[in-house]
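QUALITY CONTROL LOG
STEP: pairwise intake check
CHECKER ROLE: data steward
CRITERIA: each record must contain a sequence immediately followed by its structure tokens, with no blank fields

ENTRY 1 OF 2
RESULT FIELD BELOW
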Amino acid sequence: MKTTDDMLKINRVQASFYDSISDVEDEYSGAGYSEHSAANLFTRVWANLRYRQQRAALLSGVDDLKLKLHYEWLEKYRGGTSLELGCFRGTRFTDPLIEASSRYVGIDLSPKAVQALNHKIHEANLQSKAKAISGDFLVFDEGEKFDIIYAHGVLHHFENPQPLFQKISTLLSPDGVLILSEPSQVNPLFAFIRSLYRPFQSDKDWEWPFTNKTVATMENYLDPLEGFGWGRNTLFLSVLVSLPLLGRLLLPFYLRMVRSEIKSGWHSKVWHNSTVVAIYKLKSN
């Protein structure tokens, strides 16, 4: 298991990797991960499959439900402070976070992405309440606590979850919440499939989908409030429905299954899904 110093070294490499993605985003909006040259063929193919899965899932209402949940919690903390981990050049939730917060801080490893986001913030004349900084979250210290910590597809980039969630617990205000959306390989089948692909992955040093250990470590510091997951029974179908002819036949069945998964809400097997959206709070003493 990597130490904090080990992860800081890896994150410096990761920063360069995501700088190259930021460069490609200038040319291929929204497709930088699957288009840039720093990613090998296997990584680009995997990224394209993931994008196809996301597009198929959109039709099921997953994205609408995720945004609804996020907005509900954002409204509960309107006027509070927010910290966005992995803000990159600005995510789809960056603007709502800035609008609802009295103070917004975004942090990302990529200096180029942070520069692009700060440019947007200044263009919108929001620099009095919002800023993005380039740096490593593990050593981040603004001398304040936050009502919302928002992390969309970011927390699985830390191999050792203990320093990560310890850090989050020190930055959350007593009544604050962590809003997350993360890939999971708690399901043994998903873990096996990823193990076959992993040796060929360009970004394997910082791609660590949640495991039972990750969840257990997180829940040493935080308690779940609500959330949902999908993909436990539909992950493979999501790839098939992206195919031209077969996809049309399978799509209605796929959508019914995904809707059934997300309707289940939070339950004991939620982390057996391929993706989980969740709200966590500091553990009660």
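ENTRY 2 OF 2
RESULT FIELD BELOW
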Amino acid sequence: VLERALGAALAAGRTPTDEAQAIEWLGLVPRLVPGDARNIKVTTAADLALVTALLEVRKAHAAE
């Protein structure tokens, strides 16, 4: 469904704000599922800094 939705958006010259919007443009309802707060989407330099810090903490605890 996602490939079809993104392909249709591209073919129509549209740029969705996210995958859910592309699916909605097909007339479908995206399914939302619970996630994990540790699954961080890295889109900015601040996100990358946060992930780097979290990995350093995890690495330090693993060495103990």
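INTAKE CHECK: passed for both entries
DESCRIPTIVE NOTE, ENTRY 2: Residues 1 and 25 are 12 Å apart (CA to CA).
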